[in-house]
Amino acid sequence: MSTAPDRYVQLLAQHSLRNTAMRRAVLELLSRTPFALSSHDIEQELGPGVDRITLYRTLKSFEEKGLIHRVPENSDVSKYAACSIECSQHAHFDNHVHFKCTNCQHVYCLNQVSIPVVTLPAKFEAITRDYLLAGVCRECQPA
Ligand SMILES: [Zn+2]
Ligand SMILES: [Zn+2]
């Protein structure tokens, strides 16, 4: 998989999003960070001068277009992760397991781990699926 900056320009075009510096920066940041980030985290990472409203709109449009997804977490803060390239629009957010590290507090997308099929009782219809495991991540394991 190429990590050339062109990739983000291409991704934006593929999702009918205008190519702006903010959009490229947010997409690049979320793609290279192995865990989910809150809008506050993103603001911190992008440095001073980030317009909060523009950032908010950027995240919203990315979410609508299926470039990023919200990760389930037991807190009031929304955290976002980049969707894998393979995922198709609006079918991506609830197909993989998420993992929250109780040590570093990072929430990881385990894209390679599918949510197991759950058989529901009659007349129960699931609309969303949040599958969140908690424990100790790879980075926090003792050497
Ligand atoms: Zn950790
Ligand atoms: Zn995820």
From TrEMBL:
Keywords: Metal-binding, Zinc. The keyword Zinc applies. It holds the Pfam family FUR. Zn(2+) binds at C101, C104, C137, C140. GO terms for biological process: negative regulation of DNA-templated transcription; regulation of secondary metabolite biosynthetic process. One of its GO terms (molecular function) is transcription cis-regulatory region binding. Binds 1 zinc ion per subunit. Its cofactor is Zn(2+). Transmembrane segments: none annotated. Coiled coil: none annotated. The keyword Metal-binding applies. This is Transcriptional repressor.
